[in-house]
Amino acid sequence: MDSYDFNILRHLQNDGRMSNLELAEKIHLSPPQTLRRVRALEEAKVIRAYAAQVAPEAVGLGVMAYVNLSLDREQFRNVREVERKIMAFPDIIECHTISGDFDYLLKVVATDLKGLSQFLTDKLMQVPGVANLRSMVCMEEIKPVSGLPIPSSMGN
């Protein structure tokens, strides 16, 4: 990757709907060269996807929580099976393995606190292998999901 690729990534993170012509003008390359580079970044999975960032409350999801989850390794050893079950819940919008006292950090959305409680108790805690949960409810979103701080080039 070179400075053109990094520039493409910065611009597409800010506006994924930008036309190829607009992008080419911004990065000072011809449209065919720009399109070739974008397609190469997509094929290399540097660009994972294009998506709209939807305001959760606008679609009735008024509660967001971070949930620490630990596994019971004594009773359940198939970690990948637990992960498949976690990934199947649409309420979980992010999942990361973490170090420390817990095994996973989940970002969960729900309509309200009762809905969050029902999801945690009736669904997530029922997954075989889940031993413990600790949730933290978000009070206010200060900085929503944003793009990565893309450097000018790999040397920076």
TrEMBL record:
SUPFAM superfamilies from the xrefs?
Dimeric alpha+beta barrel, Winged helix' DNA-binding domain
GO molecular function (one): sequence-specific DNA binding
InterPro entries recorded: ArsR-like_HTH, AsnC-type_HTH_dom, Dimeric_a/b-barrel, Tscrpt_reg_AsnC-like, Tscrpt_reg_AsnC/Lrp_C, WH-like_DNA-bd_sf, WH_DNA-bd_sf
* Domain annotation HTH asnC-type: ranges: 1-62
Task: Note whether Plastid occurs among the keywords.
Answer: no
Q: Which UniProt keyword terms apply here? A: DNA-binding, Transcription, Transcription regulation
Domain of life, per UniProt, equals Bacteria
Q: Name one Pfam family in it.
A: AsnC_trans_reg
One Gene Ontology term of the biological-process aspect is: response to amino acid
Q: Does the keyword Translocase apply?
A: no
Q: What does UniProt give as GO cellular component? A: cytosol
Supply the name of the protein.
Lrp/AsnC family transcriptional regulator
Organism the protein comes from = Undibacterium nitidum
